[in-house]
Write a structure and sequence with these properties.
Layout (H helix, E strand, L loop, with lengths): L8 E4 L11 E5 L20 H8 L1 H4 L3 H10 L6 E7 L12 H10 L4 E6 L5 H12 L2 E7 L2 H9 L3 E6 L6 E4 L2 E5 L10 H4 L10 E5 L5 H7 L6
Parallel strand pairs: 2-3, 3-4, 4-5, 5-6, 6-9, 8-9
Antiparallel strand pairs: 1-2, 7-8
Helix pairs in contact: 3-4
């Protein structure tokens, strides 16, 4: 079992984030990010701007995963929909493996809500199985990918996939046997996560695309791991 004392989570009951809308959110300490995440040193949006300001507070003001359950339960402003991890991930520190102990705590904390998140953890049999089990409990986790081959593997396993790209040619694209839908909030400034629902839709049969954005997008594009859709 992983020592959960290594992980801290900051819960924000009411947010002014324009992209997500006014829904409850969390930030998890950066040691929860897997080693393999290609954005780590190449344009991670969470390392700059307002998101980074919140993320830097996690180590000092965050709670333990075990404490999160009571905080969510007792918050008077908690929303039905919760975006887990505006920044951070669910990996065992120093690995690409999903932290099963952490995931169990999160599923318990969010059991009465529509919670969703993303992970750059390795797309392998173990991690896919854990994510599928979490979705069955109501916590939907999207595997973050950068290519259609990996996204297809995720869908085949019955899990949700999103894909980061340089550009996307249309709102809906058919490529390599996949249906890829651009995130509505990246198209229309009036759209946001609070009313969209694509990323917390369980058993989604299409991939959601996120054109690279934020202050680090130039660095991410120059790194060469993103494609055009």
């Amino acid at each position: 079992m992983t020592n959960l004392n290594e992980i801290k989570i900051k819960f924000v009951a009411s947010s002014g984030n324009k992209k997500t809308g006014n829904i409850s959110q969390t930030y998890t300490s950066c040691n929860s990010c897997p080693n393999r995440c290609p954005f780590k040193n190449a344009g991670c949006y969470a390392k700059q701007g307002p998101v980074s300001w919140q993320w830097k507070k996690v180590e000092k003001t965050g709670c333990s995963p075990e404490e999160l359950k009571d905080i969510v339960k007792n918050s008077k402003k908690v929303s039905e929909v919760i975006r887990h991890n505006v920044a951070g991930d669910i990996a065992v520190p120093g690995t690409d493996d999903i932290n099963e102990s952490l995931l169990n705590e999160l599923c318990e904390a969010y059991k009465d809500h529509k919670a969703y998140s993303y992970t750059h953890c390795e797309v392998n049999e173990r991690n896919l199985k854990l994510v599928k089990a979490a979705a069955d409990k109501g916590f939907v986790i999207n595997f973050s990918t950068e290519d259609t081959e990996t996204a297809a593997k995720v869908l085949k396993a019955g899990c949700n996939a999103v894909i980061a790209c340089n550009t996307i040619s249309n709102r809906v694209v058919k490529k390599d046997g996949l249906t890829i839908v651009q995130c509505p909030a990246t198209i229309d400034p009036e759209k946001h996560c609070a009313t969209c629902g694509l990323c917390w839709k369980k058993d989604r049969k299409f991939v959601v695309a996120f054109p690279v954005h934020g202050n680090g997008k130039k660095k991410a594009k120059e790194a060469g791991f993103l494609s055009n859709l």
